[in-house]
Task: inverse folding
């Protein structure tokens, strides 16, 4: 399955992927993706999409997408951890794959592609995963991410709290002051 950098024309596909998470959350409240209080409209999501592209153009992020039969089925982005001078070397990773395309190695391929694009932009990549998502944690660990701590009660949905497992990976080839 082809994995490539995101393009401006991927808006509709990425919007559809992001909207699918709301269906997944309704089906499985333990689904570990973030959500806004309500589904954004296409016009509202266009703002986020534009901000993502601004970050890419300014070297503050990378985004990889997977395409199957002309359809965007997964994405992985790494974006700068805040706008502070002191944290510019750290990127925060998020990955999402449509349910029918999981367990095919696609998440791993997306992350690998995104990490390669991080060279020269970030020294370290961080992510958060909930304990109820061992499949994702296994993928992260297989790619060399290591646990560096927890954020107690870092995730709350429907009045139930879960800790976040905090993971990190040094970007291969990263030097100081990237």
Result:
């Amino acid at each position: 399955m082809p994995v490539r950098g995101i393009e401006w024309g991927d808006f509709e596909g990425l919007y559809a992927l992001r909207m699918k998470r709301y269906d997944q959350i309704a089906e499985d409240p333990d689904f570990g993706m973030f959500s806004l209080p309500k589904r954004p409209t296409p016009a509202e999501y266009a703002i986020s999409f534009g901000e993502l592209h601004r970050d890419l153009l300014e070297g503050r992020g990378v985004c990889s997408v997977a395409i199957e039969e002309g359809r965007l089925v997964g994405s992985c982005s790494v974006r700068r951890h805040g706008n502070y001078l002191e944290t510019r070397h750290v990127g925060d990773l998020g990955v999402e794959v449509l349910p029918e395309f999981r367990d095919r190695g696609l998440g791993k391929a997306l992350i690998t592609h995104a990490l390669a694009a991080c060279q020269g932009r970030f020294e370290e990549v961080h992510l958060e995963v909930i304990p109820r998502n061992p499949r994702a944690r296994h993928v992260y660990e297989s790619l060399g991410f290591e646990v560096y701590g927890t954020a107690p009660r870092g995730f709350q949905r429907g009045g139930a709290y879960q800790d976040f497992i905090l993971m990190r990976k040094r970007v291969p080839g990263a030097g100081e002051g990237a």
Notes: The radius of gyration is 16 Å. The mean pLDDT is 92. Helices lie at 11-27, 42-57, 106-118, 134-142. Residues 11-27 form the longest helix (17 residues).
